Amino acid sequence: xxxxxxxxxxxxxxxxxxxxxxxxxxxxxxxxxxxxxxxxxxxxxxxxxxxxxxxxxxxxxxxxxxxxxxxxxxxxxxxxxxxxxxxxxxxxxxxxxxxxxxxxxxxxxxxxxxxxxxxx
Length: 120
What we know:
It comes from Mucilaginibacter agri. By secondary structure, the protein is mostly beta strands. Helix content is about 5%, strand content about 50%. The chain contains one helix and ten strands.
């Protein structure tokens, strides 16, 4: 799995697991627009803001936990990383669940508790 997706037992009872970076990025005209990037399959990131759109460049821009690094941080604000998944409930039905992992320490694990992503 990706460096931007936390581990844990939830992976056994969840599918469509996705880690997404959201922020507000400035365009060349200084207007701020919502931006996002799927981090799920990235092993490293060096994200850049190209006129309000986030792109991943080769190399490692570092990271702060699950928040990827890169020059986008100079022209973007409000960085948030959200983990989402379809989680199986005890009654075998499925439920969509999200969890803000922006400040989650690397190494913490997650569980699926009756369809809800939960920090262990």
